[in-house]
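Q: Got a minute? One more chain.
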Amino acid sequence: MKLSHQLKAAFSSVVLSICMLASPLSSDACTNIIVGKKASADGSVICTYNCDGFGFSGSLKFTPAGAHEKGEKIAIRAFGSGGIKGYVDQVDYTYGVMGYINEHQLSIVETTFGGREELQNREGILDYDSVMHLALERCTTAREAIIVMADLLKEYGYNQTGETITVCDKDEAWIFEVIGKGPGRKGAVWVAVRIPDDCISAHANISRIRDFPQAKKVDKATGYYIVEGECMYSPDVISFAREMGYFKGADSEFSFRDAYCPITFEKVRYADARVWSFFRHHYDTDVMDSYLPYINGEFDKCDHLPLYIKPDKKLSVRDVMNDMRDHYEGTPLDMTADMSAGPWGMPIRPRPMNFTASDGNTYFMERPIGTQQSGFTLVSQLRGWLPDAVGGIMYFNCDDASMVAYVPVFCGANEVPEAFRSENNPHNEFNWKGAFWMNNLVSNMIYPRYSMMIGDLKQAQKELEDYYEEDLAKVTSEVADMTSRDRTAYLTSKSAGYTSRMMTRWDELFRFIAVKYNDQIVKNTKDGQFIGGYTTPGYNAVFNDAISEYTGDRYRAKTETSAGDANAQTSAL
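A: Always. Here it is, folded:
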């Protein structure tokens, strides 16, 4: 048996297994945002990915393009164990892939919705990660990728739970939802819907497609139903739901979500609330707040969000980066606004997601888009008016999107920047060369004193992203007259240089905040330089009031000392 040497490495990694949503209460989950080309400020198609899950470190892998011998096979390895599940026939030629974008500006990312557990067929060969990478290596457009993924799952079987996959090229954005058919039944049922060019969408671990356009007959060339330019779906997506007792109405009333991923409060609050908050950034807030009954589990009043909306203003790639850092700020779900955020307004919550108080009641924690357990985060920008090599950019970094700067990596690069390589980001050993560990060094210092320290990180974040935005404008003209070979070398070098700049700036940031905030004080600075003296910030008002309410007179001052004098005395101590 001939094995494709190019894919051995790509499929040996199983880090994305932790992105699966094991149960409705699991905190291991992911987020995707989608922006159509007429909804973006510059005409690009944009999609994003926070790959969330504890216990793994993010990194990038590159698979070069190449021709393959007849009869080659690809070994598909199992999630977790890494054992070989089976083999897939190789194609004659595969395209270069950098992480989740290929050389033709095709980008594919995902979130897991789980759905009906009885539909998982563990005997299938393919999981979502392997089928996504196969499509990236074989396809140039989103529509082609959807058909290729569907064909692969039909031929080789699907072994995981329900999945929502974002499939974008430089012209179109699609959402592809798929779930298996259960033990002993190879293949999957699925539906794919195109997001209108002037709209935005998102998904986060709950099925998002309800009703969809339906065709009158199967397309003879593919064997699937196709509503040209709008929708594609498997021929049995409705009949299988009927067979399993998930649906009884007329075909026109069919909802993929309701059949294959029935909603619960936990699914909606931990998942669709993230979509709601994203939409709220870019639409009338009063209108979006009318969906709060749904977010609060009052499904008799409202039982869904729209699949997509037309934003009130076109989104820039920087807007989308900031959307990936959301903690519900300014909404009724704001994670910084009450005493659960601690003394310094921390929008991070420990796990598990649920806890039981001494009164015997069970409570839950909010689950935002920006979260500490992200292994990596990315924003793919696909620019159809430019040559593919420079048109496709994957802004990437390891760790929480809230706490990192997005670094441009060109789809035309042919080498992973050093700080993003897997060997420099081992999950159980700190490494100064790894972006995951450099970023976590800073973020885990800031989390406990968030409101006190986050300003310095935001300044460094903005400084880097401003620089990248300005420099990227020059790159397009610089590569215009280069040969293909020279362009590849140049874009590879630029990607490495951008990454190195980030690592240097974050090392400086770590050393700066270690000194500035030493021993719970804040040393005075001006223009990044220490100027002598310090302040003692104390707790915020919400937390001070909570202490007063909880402890009564225990800490009540016994003198009539003024507040200013009391602070001065405390500082002297």
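A: The chain has a mean pLDDT of 92.
Q: Perfect, thanks.
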